[in-house]
Amino acid sequence: MSEARLTGPVRIVGVGLLGASIGLGLRAKGVEVILADASPTHLAIAADYGAGRPAAPDDVPQLVVVCVPPDVTAAVVASELAANPTAIVTDVASVKLAIHDDLVARGADLSRYLGTHPMAGRELGGPMSGRADLFVGRPWVVAAHDRISYRDASVIDDLILDLGATLVELTPEQHDRAVALVSHVPQVVSTLMARRLIDAPHASVNLAGQGIRDVTRVAASDPELWVQILGQNSAPVIEILRGYRDDLDRFIDALDDLEAPGARRRIAEELFGGNTGVERLPGKHGVDRRYASLIVMVDDRPGQLAKLFNDVGDAGVNLEDLRLEHSPGAQVGLAEISVLPEVLERLTDELAARGWRIAG
């Protein structure tokens, strides 16, 4: 275990998924963590899981991390600044400008505040979903402003680096426009697509494959939380949704009259534009041309997926990405494995020799 940069103690206010994960990650580094939550049950569960200890009246934290819903974040940050006059205070809400402006209006001491946003999460919430490695390798935005010194803000940099995340500095405005594009609008699009399934015939839903599952995955997110997020970041979300609506209208018009001059070309250009956009996604989440893939048929029996992972590892191949597809009632699933192109042929031969059926 590498030595922590933070000296602590660190006070975490709100021990849902993010708060509990921060606590678990810091405790794994040996940092003292103090927990506070409006729910005694959440607090007890997070403490029992090892995320930290309940707060005591004489605590003097080095850093306070506010992990509460966006609509109360500014109020809690202001309260923590007042209650802990020697501490630096940050928050992890997914909107930044509205919170910053609210704190300015409250007259809060922004020389000890800097908002942040870790780009990490899970569909599940609550302290039991916390993971010490949740932030490893993930971007963590620092929403910079000019009222805090670099020296004082360095403790927040230490927090981010201790949890294994990658620090990204943006202004609050830049952050909110960025997450509108890569998080908030995708949530809306995913949700509206998933709503089409409500009245769909049962036979149609039974045909669902990985495509519809990919598009609708985040539609399972908490509606109450998303009402808050979208409400606090409405301007950039509306701007992008209006552009998306224009794109849809053009696509519909072309599809509605395929015999019109240029209609098929316009559809092809829109589809190709999607290809180009996906290629810009970083790392393994986009269509990274450095990787090749093969599809392995996996029997629907306990332990088969673990065996596949072991056999890939025994072949000396690093698994770069994985997609699973399984239709209801089917006795076999499909595992699409992404690897470096130079090992694809060797891995294919190795898995076939071990009895795996290669579908593509």
Quick structural gist:
This protein has 360 residues and is an alpha/beta fold. It has 3 domains: 10-170, 3-Layer(aba) Sandwich (Rossmann fold); 177-280, Orthogonal Bundle (6-phosphogluconate dehydrogenase C-terminal fold); 292-358, ACT domain (Alpha-Beta Plaits, 2-Layer Sandwich).
Annotate the secondary structure layout.
Blueprint: E1 10-13, H1 17-28, E2 33-36, H2 40-48, E3 53-54, E4 63-66, H3 70-83, E5 88-91, H4 97-106, E6 115-118, E7 139-143, H5 150-162, E8 166-170, H6 172-195, H7 202-205, H8 210-216, H9 223-232, H10 234-256, H11 263-279, E9 292-299, H12 304-314, E10 321-325, E11 332-339, H13 341-353, E12 357-358
Parallel strand pairs: 1-2, 1-4, 2-3, 4-5, 7-8
Antiparallel strand pairs: 6-7, 9-11, 9-12, 10-11
Structure overview:
There is one protein chain. This protein starts with 9 loop residues before the first strand and ends with a strand. The radius of gyration is 24 Å and the shape is globular. β4 (63-66), α3 (70-83) and β5 form a beta-alpha-beta unit. The chain folds into 3 domains: 10-170, Rossmann fold (3-Layer(aba) Sandwich); 177-280, 6-phosphogluconate dehydrogenase C-terminal fold (Orthogonal Bundle), CATH 1.10.3660; 292-358, 2-Layer Sandwich (Alpha-Beta Plaits), CATH 3.30.70.260. Strands 3-2-1-4-5 form a 5-stranded parallel β-sheet, with helices on both faces. A 4-stranded antiparallel β-sheet has the order 10-11-9-12. Helix content is 46%, strand content 15%. It is an alpha/beta fold and 360 residues long.
